[in-house]
Amino acid sequence: MLQKFGFSQYESQVFEVLASSEEPMDATNIVKYSGVPKSKIYEVLSRMIEKGMVLDSVSEKKKLYTALPLSIVIEKLTTEFQQNVEQLKNNTSKRKFYDEHVWSLKVDSSIRAQTKQLLQTAEKSIRVSGWQDDIQEILPILQEKEKQGVDVEVLVVGELESTLSHVHTLIPAQEHHSLERFRLVVVDETEVIFAGMESQSWQALKTKSRPFIKVFIEFFYHDVALAKITEKHSELMMNDEEIKSVLMKLRY
């Protein structure tokens, strides 16, 4: 029975011998009647003393051992079991394991399909930036999600007519020689798709990696800030050749 409570076979044998003896016993007699090897007896006795199952004493320079009374053992094991159950209840919590992979996507049709599917899963928030024609394609999903209570925020390059509450618009200047086509979608701050043109072909990455998500959210608001600054202070900045030169090099 003790083995069911986590005691080893040798520990159980030692306790059984001591519990059934009317007198304390020394190590020699415990070895004789328990069957525990002499080489192991002191190690086993030491463990049982630490567990509070065996008491030891020195009498006439001889070390003697006796077992904790069985009634007390039953109470002790019952109490410890109940405490362990309560501790398990209190300490057990669900853990989330995050997928830190960064997945590559190619072919424009696949990227668009993955983007729409990701948008449909949004429950809390959507951050989207891209060019007008790309945003127009997913606009029905964005508007429906906002009706459902999802916080939708969009940065669009070009004019966009929509019912969305939070749309930031960038109208490119003719001097924008570094402005490249791109798409960025961040859903619930847990998953992101970023796509861009490379060698005339669309390529994208998709990830739930938290460091990447943090970077892309900051990336989104960096673009929003630049769009707002350009919109409100365009004339001032475009008349300053130094500031204009720097702004025109930004990708947005």
From TrEMBL:
UniProt domain Transcription regulator TrmB N-terminal: residue ranges: 2-70
One Pfam family per UniProt: TrmB
Domain of life the protein comes from: Bacteria
Stored PANTHER family: HTH-TYPE TRANSCRIPTIONAL REGULATOR TRMBL2
Domain Transcription regulator TrmB C-terminal, chain residue ranges per copy: 102-222
Protein name, per record: TrmB family transcriptional regulator
